[in-house]
Design the sequence.
């Protein structure tokens, strides 16, 4: 699919700063990336968030009568509110009126809506939320999945995560022969609980991936791995901890570098370097997490997403569509099933 034809359905009502920041990020993506954005939500609120001089004829707004609040139980809310913005956005993808969807709203509701509206890809038992972390090697990110969709995982789920993650890493992140790791408490294949040991065996025997062994916590950001799989409970703890560490380091730099005259002078010279440090560490630069395993390109943003995060999430969604990541995952599974059959 040509990049200029990519259409992204945006849940304009989802997130702490909706709709203003969501709309701002979407409009920037429209201008800089050439994507077509469909703003889904309350038309009056969306129009109020648009810049004063914008031509309304150039903005596509899709009306949605309801929104799902962060304190609602996700599955019941998705079923109870069929015209909620996240449901309407998913329906646009299902009807092929949009190629991808982004929401910074209730992540559980986004996942439930994706499963109910789009369904799973053939061969996938459970979808996984994958997010990109920076590593100590510049320009070499690592994809972690699952980071919250599945609290408990069977070994075969982790194997499926690895296949999906490898396809995304190769075709979207541009990694040649992605190196896959299993998050564990030691390098030896006998380490961990029974599920980890059995998952290690499945991953080692899978000819479709380049599994190089267990990854300990200290290996996550080392750059030695391109994809690391784990259950959603562990992955979510890891995600939140990594985000907190990044924020702490950035705050320490802001407080300590300008101290004293020499610090103030040095900081002025270091501004370009500090900006690059922030770009490598700030989760806003990655925009959000991809829900892999459903029959549509779905990105889930942080509830606190502001315009830069929204822009970057849309950029990643566009790249996933352009590189046909869903089709490539399906192709990998067809090869795997034919070999096992």
Sequence:
């Amino acid at each position: 699919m040509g990049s200029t034809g990519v259409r992204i359905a945006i849940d304009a009502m989802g997130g702490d700063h909706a709709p203003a920041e969501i709309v701002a990020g979407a409009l920037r993506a429209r201008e800089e990336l050439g994507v077509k954005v469909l703003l889904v939500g309350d038309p009056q609120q969306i129009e109020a968030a648009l810049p004063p001089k914008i031509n309304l004829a150039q903005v596509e707004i899709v009306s949605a009568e309801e929104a799902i609040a962060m304190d609602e139980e996700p599955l019941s809310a998705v079923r109870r509110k069929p015209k909620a913005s996240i449901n309407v956005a998913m329906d646009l993808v299902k009807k092929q009126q949009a190629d991808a969807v982004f929401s910074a709203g209730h992540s559980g509701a986004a996942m439930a809506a994706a499963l109910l509206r789009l369904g799973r890809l053939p061969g996938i038992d459970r979808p996984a939320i994958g997010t990109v972390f920076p590593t100590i090697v510049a320009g070499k990110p690592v994809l972690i999945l699952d980071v919250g969709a599945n609290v408990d995982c069977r070994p075969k789920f982790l194997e499926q995560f690895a296949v999906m993650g490898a396809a995304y890493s190769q075709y979207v992140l541009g990694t040649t022969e992605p190196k896959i790791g299993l998050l564990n408490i030691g390098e030896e294949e006998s380490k961990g609980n029974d599920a980890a040991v059995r998952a290690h065996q499945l991953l080692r025997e899978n000819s479709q991936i380049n599994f190089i062994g267990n990854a300990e916590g200290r290996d996550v950001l080392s750059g030695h791995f391109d994809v690391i799989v784990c259950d959603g409970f562990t992955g979510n703890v890891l995600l939140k901890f990594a985000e907190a560490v990044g924020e702490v380091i950035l705050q320490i730099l802001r407080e300590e570098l300008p101290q004293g005259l020499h610090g103030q002078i040095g900081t002025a010279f270091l501004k370009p370097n500090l900006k690059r440090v922030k770009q490598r560490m700030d989760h806003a630069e990655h925009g959000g997490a991809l829900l892999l395993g459903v029959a549509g390109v779905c990105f889930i943003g942080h509830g606190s997403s502001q315009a830069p995060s929204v822009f970057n999430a849309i950029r990643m969604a566009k790249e996933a569509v352009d590189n046909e990541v869903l089709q490539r995952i399906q192709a990998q599974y067809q090869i795997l099933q034919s070999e096992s059959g």
Summary: The longest helix spans residues 232-256.
